[in-house]
Amino acid sequence: MADFRSDNTHGASPEILEAVARANRGTVVSYGTDPFTARVEERCRELFEHDLKVFPVLTGTAGNSLSIASMTPPWGAVFCHEQAHIHRDEMGAPEFFTGGAKVFPVAGAHGKLTPEALTATIALLGDGAWSPKPSCVSVTEATEAGTVYTTDEVGALGEVARRFGCRVHMDGARFANAVVSSGATPAELSWKAGVDVLVFGGTKNGALAVEVIVAFDLTLAAELAIRWHRAGHRLSKMRFLSAQFEAYLGHDLWLRNARHANAMAARLAAGLGERVIHPVEANVVFARFPAKLAASLATQGHQFFDWPVFGGDAFRLVAGFDTAEDDVDALVRAVTSHSPVA
Questions:
Q1: Quick one: which of 13, 315, 334, 336 is 20 to 30 A from 78 by CA?
Q2: Position 239 pLDDT exceeds 90
């Protein structure tokens, strides 16, 4: 049966593997001065309709932490949703890389920050001499609840950030899924809505291991370059990261992969019906299964994670770029055939 635990459990797109193999031919200059990285930067300029700098990294945690550190001093405050990856899943990496900045979680339904809640949380700090200084607002797109911010929603958060003197970081581990879902252009969903730095995800959507920090605010680029090198993410053989992303953006592979993953999640959500607990707007489904049903599904070989942040009977199911319709349908049949009183 299929693995719905995470889009991280899936392999890599053949196009990505072929690109890495091509990059292995011959000799190429080192440390990000290679033509692969230059082409990725130029393609991103075209895609986002903006001048920018790119910094490929191995992991989303590195991308998020280095980006936030570039805009947040040690005495700064970072605001994010209470379920955000930077708050719950990155071992305090943003605090470490900033040298001591404090992360303030903000509540919000379905994984989303709201301007009202964000404003209230920032305002609580006041402007006295004793509190961390508001410096960064972090937005996750798509969210940890599988929902997607609209361009207007991102823009409204950006307005709050600017009002309080904060820059905006976007954790775009599933940015491709959000672009496909929203129908917005990459520019509309990022810098046009007030985002200063985007961590553009590839690993969850068919790459081997690459995320790209995209700095729209060029005043941050010099410090990002230093932090990128100092943190050990300026790889000597950077071409193997950049080759992945060049193939990812080539022929719209990133959009095709995300479109398929989103479609499989929508198919799964339709089959699970009222068990679904959040709007399904990307490639992640959250559903409620009684304990006996969850155990039965596991016995049949269906793999997924429990997600207690949404309740003891909540489970997360994630579709990937190569999830098959037959696997989705098999899981739905297993759920719907289970006796509700068993």
A1: 315
A2: yes
